[in-house]
Specification:
Its main location: membrane. The chain is mainly alpha-helical. The protein has one domain: Na+/H+ antiporter like fold (Up-down Bundle), CATH 1.20.1530.20. Helix content is 80%, strand content 0%. The chain has 16 helices and no strands. Helix 3 packs antiparallel against helix 4, helix 12 packs across helix 15 and helix 15 runs antiparallel to helix 16.
């Protein structure tokens, strides 16, 4: 049962994140330390250095031979359900769109497992629950964040390709009418091969696309043959990886300070994000868990970890690729504020049903 000491441990884990957030916000809003261009550079530092090293560091220290594969299968089924629903919505609804499908996937499936999930899971169900949450984090980084990175890169590459072709046409004399450009737009669209070639080249230069994969490969080798990472190598990784979460929250504070309002996306989108994060995600996870036959504490941990606050990494990607960063940042900030009472409520309901 959760006591006040357990709640305090969760608060202790969360408050430092808000300190970093406030420092980032104040450095632009109050003290004018950074320009918008410098803020973009800081976000890029986080996206290409601290977060990949943070991801590699925690993936390299898991034991892949002790993973709970039914739990991982349930998580995969829940995300496939979300993808299927969003694909149907984007194709069949007049309000559906590819861009909003990407953002909705982030909101409903990607969680902040390590900062909030680990202390909370330990307080609720002990060390076995912590192991499950960490396993879910590793799979999220290897599969689902990489998938998110892929679709974001496809979107940006396609947009850049089309924009460059349109600019080339307009430089020839925009005397060309808009109608002419629209009629000829099909000829400027890249082929599937050229698009994917450009995307894979971009991903090959992005350390986020392989940091966790390299980490889990090392984990397999280290646990199979009982190797330890050389101290000089581990120290080199830790010096940057320890700053991963803090600098990500600092970057989010910078982003907030550049907006006109703290709640940059408005009330309706904030509520939309909270519904996806704390209702749609756990509901899909419950379906996936029942489908593979999870029961007992493993079932309860699966549902609770799906209701954790929004992933900070998803904001860094949204900011870097220019896709609804205001919505994701609001989901991270408000999600961490409301997550504790909501997760305790989930815990109480699941215990009552048991």
């Amino acid at each position: 049962m959760i006591g006040w000491e357990d709640v305090y441990k969760v608060v202790v884990a969360m408050v430092p994140l808000y300190v970093a957030l406030i420092l980032g916000y104040g450095s632009v809003k109050w003290w004018r330390f950074f320009t918008p261009e410098q803020c973009d550079a800081i976000n890029r530092l986080v996206a290409y250095f601290t977060l990949p090293l943070f991801t590699f560091e925690f993936a390299a220290h898991v034991d892949p031979f002790k993973m709970n594969y039914p739990f991982i299968a349930a998580d995969a089924i829940s995300k496939v359900i979300i993808v299927a629903v969003l694909a149907f919505w984007a194709k069949c609804s007049s309000k559906g769109s590819y861009c909003w499908s990407i953002t909705s996937f982030s909101l409903s499936t990607l969680t902040n497992s390590l900062v909030v999930g680990v202390p909370l899971a330990k307080a609720m169900y002990g060390q076995s629950a912590v192991d499950l949450v960490v396993q879910g984090s590793v799979i999220q980084a290897i599969v689902w964040l990489t998938l998110l990175l892929l679709v974001l890169e496809i979107r940006r590459t396609h947009t850049n390709f089309y924009s460059s072709e349109t600019e080339g046409d307009s430089s020839k004399g925009v005397d060309k009418s808009v109608k002419d450009l629209e009629e000829n737009s099909t000829s400027t669209k890249p082929s599937c091969w050229s698009l994917m070639k450009a995307v894979w080249l971009k991903l090959a230069m992005n350390p986020n696309s392989y940091a966790c994969i390299v980490g889990i490969i090392w984990a397999f080798i280290a646990n199979r043959w009982h190797f330890q990472m050389p101290a000089i190598m581990e120290g080199s990784i830790l010096i940057m990886s320890r700053a991963g979460t803090g600098t990500a929250m600092f970057s989010m504070g910078l982003f907030m300070a550049l907006q006109e309002k703290i709640v940059a996306c408005g009330t309706s989108l904030t509520v939309f994000g909270m519904v996806l994060r704390f209702i749609a995600g756990p509901a899909a996870m419950a379906i996936g868990s029942i489908a593979v036959g999870l029961h007992g504490d493993v079932l309860r941990v699966a549902i609770i970890q799906a209701a954790l606050p929004q992933s900070i990494t998803s904001f860094i990607f949204a900011k870097e690729y220019g896709l609804h960063a205001d919505v994701i940042s609001t989901a991270v900030i408000f999600g961490m504020l409301v997550s504790l009472p909501l997760l305790v409520a989930y815990y109480a309901i699941l215990e009552f049903l048991h």
